Amino acid sequence: MKKSTDELLNILKSNSNLDDYFSENRDYMQYATLPQMLESLILSKKISKSEAINNSLIEKHYGYQIFKGIKTPSRDKLIMLCIGIGADLSQTSKLLNCIKASPLYAKDGRDAVIMFGILHRLSVIDINLMLYDRGYTPLE
Asked: Which distant-in-sequence residues (6+ apart) come within 8 Å of 130 by Cβ?
């Protein structure tokens, strides 16, 4: 049976030995790297790295460095890549978490526009136009 994040947090709070926590919950820990998660996502979306990078409007060389794990993208660049891949909000959140970036937050106006764009499968260009029209900094 799979343990939720809340369950793991409660176990961690009640456990006095960190080594015991890791040995007992090893199967529930996330060890995937950003390149592994991206590779899995593009396979599931049946899209090539080249298409994902082109759709994201990220400079091609930099995009391949992200896929290889040479570069860790900024929050905006990763969001752009997620949009280029066609990731949903949940997948985007997991990838943002992987680089320890703040999650998209619906109470933040800029993030709300980005979330709307992801939910409606809009392109980076369309989302940037919506951001610009509302006075927010475009994804860059």
From this structure: 113, 116, 117, 122
pLDDT in tens, 75-113: 999 999 999 999 999 999 999 999 999 999 999 999 999
State residue 137 phi and psi, 5-degree precision: -70, 130
The first and second tokens of residue 28, run together, are: 């529930």
Among 74, 13, 120, which residue's Cα sits nearest to residue 5? Answer: 13
* All residues at 6 or more sequence positions from 32 whose CB lies less than 8 Å from its CB, including other chains: 40, 98
What does the pLDDT look like over 59-73, one tens digit per residue?
Answer: 999 999 999 999 999
Answer yes or no: pTM beyond 0.90.
Answer: no
What tokens were used for 62?
């930099």
